Amino acid sequence: MEEKELEGPNSASEKRYFPESLDSSDGDEEGVLACEDLELNPFDGLPYSSRYYKLLKEREDLPIWKEKYSFMENLLQNQIVIVSGDAKCGKSSQVPQWCAEYCLSVRYQHGGVVCTQVRPQSAVQLALRVADEMDVNIGHEVGYVIPFENCCASETILRYCTDGMLQREMMSSPFLGSYGVIILDDVHERSIATDVLLGLLKDVLMARPELKLIINSSPHLISRLMSYYGNVPLIEVKKQHPVEVVYLSGAQKESFESILRLIFEIHQSGEKGDIVVFLACEQDIEKAYEIVCQEGSNLNPDLGELVVVPLYPEEKCALFKPNEETEKRCQVYQRRVVLTTSSGESLIWSNTVKFVIDVGVERRKVYNPRIRANSLVTQPISQSQAEIRKQIVGSSSPGKLFRLYSEEFASKDMRPLKPAEMQEANLTSMVLFVKRIDIAGLGHCDFINRPAPESLMQALEDLDYLAALDNDGNLSEFGIIMSEFPLDPQLSKSILASCEFDCVEEMLTIAAMVTAPNCFSNLPRGAEEAALTCWKTFLHPEGDHFTLINIYKAYQDTALNSTSEHCVEKWCHDYFLNCCALRMADVIRAELLEIVKRIELPCAEPAFGSKENALNIKKALLSGYFMQIARDVDGSGNYLMLTHKQVAQLHPRSGYSITKKMPEWVLFHKFSIAENNYIRITSEISPELFMQLAPQYYFSNLPPSESKDILHQVMDHLSPMSTTKKEQNMCEKCPETAEQRCALQ
Question: Where is the composition biased (Basic and acidic residues) (predicted)?
Fold first, then answer.
């Protein structure tokens, strides 16, 4: 029997070591007897390690473990099983392992197991954890697939993936023939991709009677799911542990001060246990982090170190029990204070959490289809979210939950359930996917909550403007190619247009940089001036999109000329850039380039730096983002949107804000309505270029404004032949009304 190794990061779950008697080649009888006595792992045929048995005891203590027999019996006899369980009951880690055992028992004749997660961080951490518990190698028998990262192999039995990645897999394999069991986890999160999968899998289950579907959810959504799927078996898991709930109704008005006071009071009390604080938004995380770090350094060192952990949505980390090396290294007691938002509810699994502080409100993005923009709205969390935050308190000993609101607020102002993302988000990408899957005969999608008609019509109208639909409302050839890219449809259209304008390499860099997290680091107090001095070296006079290309090229040059990864990280630190974000941009760009080559799109040699190339990049950007144009109406930086009457300012980190040079017309990448109406990632364009590239029927539908009058004058000065050609295109494209052409099939 050979030792199996996996190249990659050094971890206990990735390298297996066995007793010397197994590796002996002299064939002595004692070694043979020892081998016969060891229990073999059925998933890889190797003996179980001692760690497997240690973790097995921990698994058996999980609340869900007592339901294993009942679950396996129902799995054998039914096609759909719903599992209802509280947070940290073990359903996300144990149910997939039991399903893997089921697939093994039928010799994988129907495929393996896939388990979806709403957030990439959860998919990665669960895969690592389950591989450890199953005593197999991550990336082999157990793996994960998240956007722009695939850690699976041909022999992978159990894979964790984001719901969006499974949705994309349906474009090439509509009936998901690689899987015998599909697990939709955290359905109560109500993400768009999960809701779409719930609807489409109804048809897939009818086409594949051998396929099994497991739905994991918190108890709050169970009644809705039972009525949606009909009479299906339900496994209920109860997790009971004492939690003292303290309502601090007077603290809501001054919640920030109350949070800080509570953190220091808990720490000075000497009670052991980590603290989790749920704040409204990321800005509050940054503010609290700075204050707690500053004040914490003045506390009595005899109480132990106060370690502040900001947990942002984009970070690929979750909180687990510290490993043995960490425990040995820590000679003094450490208390972690985790600062997070609603996105952290499914990321905190540590049993060391004994205190939770909940502000009871969150900042949500709510999309307004009329103005094609998100509004950042602060509103109460739901009652189901409040209950999940209560369940985060560790189960080994009593804990405390501090709610900075009254019981009356919880019962009257909080909705019972978290709103479905489908009812609050831009649906353009979702509609593009549904249109694409319609080609395979799965276009009918029975949603739990029907999307708002206005949002659907806006999404269909946008796809029509982008030339993704034909005259019958089906996907055009352009639309089919656009759906191949895991990007916003506008960005996909810009990439396709870059093939015509010979700037594919530059457009791929822009797409990668705007898709990755923000490449600029969060600045500590007092570092603004130094950071701006560094960032000025990357500024490009044509705009922020071009500045992003400069930053990426500088990062690449540094990486190529550096002897170690540490040198690259130091360079990023010196220039106040986010090294992780730039690494992610590198990965994203490589995948986008692979897609371009796979579908054989023409790709010219890069020519960044020439005037012609700069113009071509703007043409490509305008081809996708002609709906995101603004004009400085008074010369002082007050930009009025072309599509509506919202006024915005350039973001302070825009190159134009730094150089104090405000262009009249700009194309922008992002805009949200909040306290500060900022447009982000902007580049100057000319009205002549806009009129040449924007669809004529889109321009005709713009509301009356001074900006539209100026564009009319520009159009009158354009050559009559060009105007006549655009009018002919409009007539060919628009034989009917938009509503008639854009019926959702």
Answer: 1-18
Q: How far apart are CA 142 and CA 117, in angstroms?
A: 15
CA angle 288, 396, 324 (to 5 degrees): 75
Helix and strand numbers (H, E) in the chain are 30, 21
pLDDT in tens, 266-314: 998 888 899 999 999 888 998 888 888 888 778 877 778 888 988 876 5
Look at residues 207, 179, 186 and name the one whose alpha carbon lies nearest to residue 118: 186
Q: How far apart are CA 367 and CA 117, in angstroms?
A: 23
Domain residue ranges in the chain: 50-237, 244-318+330-419, 427-484, 501-622, 627-717
- Could you tell me the fold of the domain covering 50-237? Rossmann fold (3.40.50)
CB 55 within 8 A of CB 132: yes
DSSP symbols for 140-154: TTEEEEETTEEE--T
Token pair recorded at residue 525: 């107090």
- DSSP 8-state code for residue 605: P
Distance CA 722, CA 587 (A): 41
User: pLDDT per residue over 635-683, tens digit each?
Assistant: 889 999 998 888 999 999 999 999 999 999 999 999 988 778 899 999 9
Place of tokens 């009652």: 383
Q: Which CATH number fits domain 244-318+330-419: 3.40.50.300, 3.40.140.10, 3.30.200.20, 3.40.50.10490?
A: 3.40.50.300
Taking alpha carbons only, the member of 271, 280, 276 closest to residue 310 is 276
Closest CA to 427 of 449, 410, 407, 442: 449
Question: Do the domains at 50-237 and 244-318+330-419 have one common CATH topology?
Answer: yes
| Ranges of the chain whose pLDDT falls below 50 | 1-35, 315-332, 721, 723-745
pLDDT of residue 235: 96
